[in-house]
Design brief:
By secondary structure, this protein is of the alpha+beta class. It contains six helices and 13 strands. It has a single domain, classed as Phosphatase 2c, domain 1 (4-Layer Sandwich).
């Protein structure tokens, strides 16, 4: 229960200085996934990762609109749908990853609208990492673009559909990208790119700068992104939830 409350950001009501919190995925074959965020979250950032087969790890970063105190039932419903739907869809013997990702997005969309009792925007980036192939099949439902670093170039992974929670019939596409040796994938919340200092935004450029340093692990990369945000702002981020989810493939 504590693990679930931590992921959804429900902690003590006593206000404390934000602290950088980090967690890593279960053991992956030749790769590592990590998430970092600042505590004291008040917005709708929600992350999850769950092993759905012997060689697949499902992960996601969602950003539900509205204040966290008003969104708890919706966040809890989305969390349960992500885990249960992912376990069902990605454990099937005859699996088409793209179709499974699209179906998961459809279920999340309907569950968010059901729990909200209507419309509630929820940009989302969800992916399935295939350890055997070194690939990520993903959907980007109106979320901040993912970033894929491969040696000397960084590719943006833009939206493949509208944010979840807006329309009962909201089609989205799924795409597959490959991670070569020493490649990395970063997905950050809106609070990261909108971090400001003297009317200048941190932006995706700030994230790309950290990725270009080639941190050796996902833990180093996710922590490095948030530390760079804090250095850029010269203060703890309080404007919004600030979350970085990263996946790094080894040699």
């Amino acid at each position: 229960m504590r693990r679930l409350l931590s992921k959804l950001g429900f902690g003590s009501a006593v206000e404390e200085p934000p602290q950088l919190v980090q967690t890593t995925s279960p053991d992956l074959n030749g790769a590592e996934l990590a998430v970092a965020y600042f505590s004291g979250r008040a917005g709708g950032d929600f992350y999850e990762f769950v092993r759905v087969s012997p060689h697949r790890l499902l992960f996601g970063l969602l950003d539900l609109a509205g204040k966290r105190d008003d969104s708890r039932p919706i966040l809890a419903a989305a969390h349960a749908c992500f885990r249960a739907g992912g376990a069902e869809l990605f454990s099937r013997p005859e699996l088409n990853e793209a179709e499974a990702m699209i179906e998961l997005a459809r279920r999340l969309n309907l569950e968010i609208m059901r729990a909200a009792g209507g419309v509630r925007s929820c940009p989302a980036f969800a992916g399935c990492y295939n350890e055997d192939l070194g690939t990520v099949c993903y959907v980007n439902a109106g979320h901040t673009p993912g970033l894929l670093y491969d040696h000397s170039s960084i590719e943006e992974l833009p939206a493949t559909g509208l944010p979840l929670g807006l329309f009962s019939l909201a089609p989205t596409d799924a795409r597959i990208v490959g991670l070569g040796p020493e490649s990395s994938l970063a997905v950050v919340s809106r609070g990261v790119v909108e971090a400001q200092c003297r009317d200048e935004e941190f932006g995706l450029a700030g994230v790309k700068h950290v990725m270009g340093r080639k941190p050796p692990s996902a833990a180093d990369l996710s922590r490095g992104i948030l530390e760079q945000v804090q250095d850029f702002m010269c203060a703890y981020p309080k404007h919004n939830d600030v979350t970085a989810l990263t996946l790094v493939r080894a040699n």
